[in-house]
Amino acid sequence: MRLVVTKMNLGLWAAAYVKEKINAAAPSPEKPFVLGLPTGGTVVDMYANLRLFHKEGLLSFKNIITFNMDEYVGLPQDHPQSYHSYMRQNLFNEVDIRPENIHILNGQAADLNKECADYEAAIAQAGGIDLFLGGVGRNGHIAFNEPGSAFNTRTRPVELTPSTMEANSRFFLNDLRRVPHQALSVGIGTVTDAKEVLFLASGAKKAEAVARLFEPGKDLNWPITALKLHPHATLLADPEACSLLDAAAKAKLDARMQAEPDAEHWTLEIEEA
Ligand code: GLP
Asked: Mean pLDDT, the chain, as a whole number?
């Protein structure tokens, strides 16, 4: 795994990376590109830049299949804070994706376990995920895999922790009672099965989660550390999200930044264990 630190807008960096990956793969109806997609505040700029690339004719979604990470249980799909609504607003309404290629978990399904099993089957049917994009919770959660989730978990119903509900209450008029306490989420194993993984962490609130990546081994209490076991995983972070790195990692990063002050980004390798 590697940490990529940039002073650029993370969304622009990530969208440019995604565009290059997709265009290099030259997806076709026979060989579509399969993207895992996140929601949340961090990735809003990434979607804005993806929309822009599409508008400029630099990126087409025609041969792209998408699987979103998660959805709240119980929110109608047209609720303004459902991840269905988020995806329509931030991406799908403005690009040339085929509706049948969009997959988002249905948090109102009558049988939630079946919904999750069907989702895993649909991912397998699509040939697996080529690039899984994601954000990071303040407590290190990925998708809605809260601390303590096993690293081999698959798509399933999950309970949100009070800390995540509190963090997400800003999208629900700051009223904790309005925040759903359950979600459907891809598992950590579903994410790490992807051929490549790119996660984004922005701001000081994510600094503890980023710092955990440099502690030896993996830590079930910090789901983000599961990415250390992936051969092709990147965490893209801004300097604020790197403010709690341990002294050795910080010294390495400072040295890279001083050696190449004008670089677009700086990279640190993260040991697997
Ligand atoms: C939610 C999502 C996560 C996301 C996290 C961080 O909990 N389920 O996938 O990573 O929010 O959100 P933000 O980017 O708003 O900090």
From this structure: 97
